[in-house]
Amino acid sequence: MENKKRIAILPWGTRLAINGFTLVLCLLIFWLLGFIIRDLQTLPAPDYVQVTELYYKNYASSGKKTGVSFVDPELREKSKVLGQQITEICQSISRKEQQQIILREGSNDIEQTLDRLNKSLIESDEKAKELASTAWQQLLERRQQIMTLGNEIVEANTESEKLQAQKREIDSQLYEYNQAADAHYHKLYNQHRLLVAFYLIAVLSPFFLVSLFLLTRCRRSPYFPIYSALGLATFLRIGYVMFEYFPAEYFKYILIGFLIAATLLLLIYAIRSVARPTLERIMKQNRESYERFLCTNCEFPIRTGPRTFLYWTRRTIHKVLPKPDSTEEEVYRCPYCGTSLYETCSACGKVRHSQLEFCRHCGAQKEIETEKI
Predict the structure, then answer these.
(1) Which tens digits make up the pLDDT trace of 72-84?
(2) What is the reported pTM?
(3) Which long-range contacts link 142-147 to residues 24+ away (Cβ below 8 Å)?
(4) Which residue among 221, 237, 247, 256 sits deepest, i.e. has the most Cβ atoms within 10 Å of its Cβ?
(5) Residue 37, Cα to own-chain centre: how many angstroms?
(6) Which among 215, 211, 205 has a CA at the least distance from the CA of 269?
């Protein structure tokens, strides 16, 4: 009879190294997939100006109005020109108001000078009269200039109000055009984003499907950590793409649907592992039960020999375990569920473990039945 394939019991350092390198590999694959995503994200997005102007040219050439037309370049240029004219008029008004202020200050100085001349000079003094006449002439000229500037400011304000009214009317039309242009542009932009997301998922899906196949089919493979690193990195990248590109109202349904599906798969796997356990799982459970002298089926204590009147559990077995007075066990069945725990070996006639594959005396192998719940 051939022995089973030997399974290496890894020390904690080796296990830690394998887990660490698995995490590093996952990060590197995640990084590599990020490069692919960034390369695909360079696809040119629709240009706002080109989209709106192209639509308006098509609309102008066809002469058919299928809805609110987009931005008219002539209206946009007219609004720009009106804005420049209004700005120039406002600047001109500001300059003229500054000139008025300067002229008023000069007029006040002239009036003060005239008051001093009238008080301090003699009327017969011809020089004083000439100075006063000159001052009065300058004062009248400045007042005339102030009045002229005032009339020009009034005319400029009237012209500015007319231009502003025209600009408001054009801006109201442009606002409607811009609304339609924005809606059309965002529609094209969202289509572009969904197309990019489709390309990204189409590139990432083969990696994810391959990793999922390997994870489900090669669970006992020694290269299982490599498959898990690939699957985890691809899954995170797909989730990142869906979160970034899919609309929030759709993403929440996709996310909750995926979580429900994943939870159902895990629940089904857990139920199957209990209802249809593998031989390896059963052997592990039986080995741990025998190590603690518990029934492999119901975990009732195996009370034979010096353990007949003792009580223990999985946690307390190391406190109450007595030193055996014999190295041989006797044929024994669980008094609670009737499971055979020790029996006579058909090959050597000695007592062996009923729920383990090999006899510890002669190594004879027996088939262990897996009961289905």
Answers:
(1) 667 777 778 888 8
(2) 0.50
(3) 142/103, 142/106, 142/107, 142/110, 143/107, 145/99, 145/103, 146/100, 146/103, 146/104, 146/107
(4) 237
(5) 14
(6) 215
